[in-house]
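User: Please predict the structure of the protein below. I'd like the answer in structure-token form so I can feed it into my own downstream comparison script.

Assistant: Understood. Taking the following sequence of 97 residues as input:
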Amino acid sequence: MPNIGPAELIVILLVALVVFGPRKLPELGKSLGAGLREFRRSTQNLKEDFEGSVRDTPPAPVQTIAPAPAASQAAQPAAQAAVPADAVAVPTSSDPR
């Protein structure tokens, strides 16, 4: 898209002057400026709110699994250590599952 030069800007202003008239043109400029200011203010508030919520949100905790201490592995009874890995555990409590 080409840039608008001074000649094109003058043509646009002359067409606006003819269409809207000399009395209505300043009012249109004021309302356009007020609308742009309000838009800029609302987008700035939205940006600040978003950045504030991102800044205030704590990072998700990272869960790490610590290896079992060697002392607890040595303390296991020999009967539990000899159980095969594919053995089925039988619940000892009266759990209603």
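That's the full token string. Residues 24-56 form the longest helix (33 residues).
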